[in-house]
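Hi F.,

I've been meaning to write this up properly since the lab meeting, where we talked about keeping a consistent format for the predictions we share between groups. The idea is simple: the sequence comes first, exactly as it goes in, then the structure tokens exactly as they come out, then a line or two of notes. No screenshots and no reformatting. I'm using this chain as the first example so we have something concrete to point to.
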Amino acid sequence: MALSAVKKSTIVRVQRTGLRAAFRLAEVVAPRLGGRLAADLWFRVPPQLPAVDLPAGGSPFELTS
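Output, unedited:
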């Protein structure tokens, strides 16, 4: 069996099932509203992660790219 065939998590699929059903319903009932909500969700900036303390003996550094 290939590693890609192994399903690693069902939690993510279960959580998104309700969201998919809501967008399928919105496509029929109110397509403009559903499209606007989908765009708002898709183009949302993810929340900023909190600062993490350095491990013992670590020192901060910066990279320029």
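Notes:
The chain has a mean pLDDT of 81.
The chain is about 50% helix and 0% strand.

If this format works for you, I'll send the rest the same way.

G.
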